[in-house]
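Re: duplicated header lines in exported C-alpha cells

Our pipeline writes sequence and C-alpha cells for each protein into one text file. With two proteins the header for the second block appears twice in some exports. Here is an export where it did not happen, for reference. First protein block:
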Amino acid sequence: MTLQNIATEPATKKMDLKNILTEIGPEIEKQGLIYDAENKFAEKNFSLLKAKGIYKALIPAELGGGGVTYSELCYFLKDLAQYCPSTSLTLSMHMHLVSVLVFKHMNGDAAATKTMQAVVEKDWVLLSTGGGDWVSSNGSAEKVEGGYRINCTKPFCSGSPIANVAVMSCAYHDGTKEHVLHFSVPMNSEGVEIIYDWNAMGMRGTGSNSVRFKDVFVPDERITLMRERGKWHPVWDVVSTLAFPVFISPYVGIVEAIAKKTISIFGNKSNHEPYALSSLGEMHNHYQITRMSHETLIDNAKNLILKPNRDTAAVALQTKSIITQHGRMSAQAAMEALGGYSYYHKVGIERLYRDLLAGEFHPMQASKQREMHGNYLIGKTLAG
C-alpha cells in the first residue's frame, strides 16, 4: 500500500495532537530505531502520520484540515522528535511550507487557499530543501514560450520518496541582471528525478535525497516570485519568521530527550563524581537557554497573526542560532557527565547527538547569522 492510497481520518473538529502522539509515538520510536540502524527512509512512520491526518493538521478546519494552532504544531514537532528525530524533521519540512500557506490564506491569498485545499483533498506532501534554496539559490533557467526551462539540483530534500509537489527556486539571468525564480512543480513532471544519495552521519531516516530538475518546463502561472539574486527580499522576512520555528522544533526536542535521558541515568546511580555533577548542571543550563529561546522563537511568530518584517526576521535568525549552539553544548555536557558510557549505542545518546548536529546546516549557519545580526544592529539591510 502506498502512502497516497492510505485513507485519512476526516478533520471534523480540532485535531488533538497530544492524544495522537500518545497513541502512535511508541510505534514511531520503535520503527525509527530500525530505520536508523538500517540507514533507510522511515516510510512506515510517515504512513502512521498520514493515516492520522497529521500532514493537514495546521490547515484550518473550514478547509478540511486539523485546525491546530501554529504554536501547537511547533510543540508537537518538538515532542515527536523525542520518539524519532528523523520523522519529526521530515514532517517539519512539509509543515513549514504549509505554515506560510496558512499565513497567506489568512491574508487573502486565493492561490494559497487553493493549494491548501489540494493538500487536503489529494493528500499532497510538499517538498523543499533543508537549506539549499536560500537567498542566492543555484541552477539556471531559460525563458521559453509560456514559461521557463529549469535546470538545477537541490540537495537535502527531506521526504523526497513520498513527496508530491516540489516547492523550489532557481537562479535566472535575463541577459541584464541575475534573478531567482520561485516555483512549484509536481514531482511526476518530466525531467524531475530523485537522486538517492542520502547517506549521512545523522537524520538517517529522513530520505533527504537530492532532486534533479533537467530541462523541466515550469509554466508562467507556477512562478510565484521573481526577485533579485543575492539580495534580501521581504519574502525572507516571512520565511525566517514563520518557517524557522517549525523546522528547528525537532532539534529542541532532541536536546530535551538527551537531557531527560541523562538525568534518568544519573538517578539510577548511588555515587556521583563532583565533576560529573558539574557537567550535569552545565547540561541543564544550556538546555534551559535552548528551551527559552525556542519559546521566544515561537512567540515571535504570534500564531501567524502578524506582519513579518526585518525585526521579526532578525529575532528568528538569532534565536535559531542560539538554539543550535546551546543545544550542542547541552548535548556535549551530557556526554561529559556520563563519560564513556554515553558512547555506547545501547544508551541512545549517540544517535540523538548525531541527529542534533544537522541543525547547524539549516539557514543561517552561526557565522553568517552573526554577520547579518551585526548589520541589523547598525541599521543596515540584512545581507544574504
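Second protein block, exported in the same file:
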Amino acid sequence: MAVIPEKISFQNSVIQYYITGTGAQYIIALHGYGEDGNSFACLETLLSPNYTLIAIDLPFHGGTRWQEGLHFSIEDLWLIIRCITNHTTEAYILLGYSMGGRMALQLLQYYPQYFEKAVLLAPDGLHHNKWHFLSTQTRLGNRTFKWVMKHPKPLFAAMDISCKLKLFNKSVYNFAHYYLDDAHAREQLYVRWTTLRKFMPNHAILKQNIRNYQIPIHLIFGKYDRVITAKYGWLFKKGIETWVTIEELDSGHQLLKEKNAGYIAQAICK
C-alpha cells in the first residue's frame, strides 16, 4: 500500500499493520504465507469511502516483531484486532487469503457475532492436510518436522520420487521447492507453522455458526490453482448452501493481483 504502516504494542511484541480508508465499516484483511499486509495494496483505490481496510502483518511476517515464543492464539489475534479498531461496535468484514483464510475461518468459529460477512480467497482450512496436522499437532511430528527442515536431503529425495510416480502434480512440487530450497526459508517455515498451529477450524462448529448468525461467505478460487482448489469449497458448502457462494477466476493460486482486484473489491462491497 502507498500508506506508511502503523504499529501497536501487544504484550512484549510489536504488531505492524496497514490501514487505508476512513469509513466506519472495518475490513480485517489477513494475508497469505510468506507475505504481509501490503499484499492487499491492489484494493486500496477500489473500495468505497464507507470502508476502512486494516491489513495486519502476522507473527514472523512483514514488520511485526513477535516476542511471545512460538505461540499465537485466536485470542491473541482477536485482542489485536479489537485494539487496532478501538473496540468498535460495528460488525467487521473478513478478508482472508490462503493461510489468512484459515485464520479467518477460526475467527468465525470463535467470534461469529462480530462479523457481517467474509470474503475468502483460496482459503486454507477448508480441508485437513495430514502433513500439516502431523507436523504441528503432534510432539513427535513437530520434532521430526524441525529435524527435516535442518536436514532436507531425505525430503527432497522423497519429493523427487513422488513426483516421478505422479503422486502429486508438478505445480505442487514446484510450490514446495519454492519454500524449501533455501535454509532460511525452511527455518521460517518451521517457525511460522509451529507458531500458528492452533488455527485449525472445526467445520461442524463453523457451519453451525454460519447458519445461526446468517453470515454470507464468498469463496473465490483460481481456476488453475493446484495448491488449494475449488473442490474444497464445494465440499465445505454442503449443508450451508444458502450462505456460501463460490467463484473461480482466470488465475492461479496468487489471487491478489491487479487483474483480480476489481472483482475482489466488488465481492467485498456488495
